[in-house]
C-alpha cells in the first residue's frame, strides 16, 4: 500500500511539473516532510543578511543622533 502511495505521489508530481512548464513563475514542486506537495513562486527573496545591514544602518543613525542631542 505504501509503495502504491509513493508511486501515485511521484506520478502526480510529474503531471504537475508538466503543467508548470507552461508557467515560468513557479519552482519545481516537491513533497515536504508531512507529505504536502509544495509549489513555490519564483521570487527574488531578500536574504536575512540584507535586512540586518539595513537595520544596523538605522541603529547607527539613531545612536549618532542621540549623541548629538546630548551635547
Structural features, described:
- A hairpin with a 5-residue loop joins strand 1 (30-31) and strand 2 (37-38).
- With 71 residues, this protein is mainly α.
- It has helices spanning 2-20, 48-70; strands spanning 30-31, 37-38.
Write the layout of secondary structure elements.
Layout: H1 2-20, E1 30-31, E2 37-38, H2 48-70
Say what oligomer this is.
single chain
Q: Calculate Rg over CA atoms.
A: 23 Å
Count of runs of 4 or more consecutive helical residues: 2
Average the pLDDT over all residues and give the rounded result. 80
- SSE ordering: HEEH
Assign a percent range to the helix content.
Answer: 55-70%
The global form is: elongated
Distance between the termini: 76 Å
Largest sheet descriptor: 2 strands, antiparallel
Strand content: 5-15%
Structure class: mainly alpha
Q: Can you list the strand order of the major beta sheet?
A: 1-2
Number of DSSP strand runs: 2
Low-confidence stretches: none
List the main descriptive attributes of the protein structure presented here:
elongated, 2 strands, two-stranded antiparallel sheet, 71 residues, mainly alpha
Summarize, please.
With 71 residues, the protein is mostly helical. Helix content is 59%, strand content 6%.
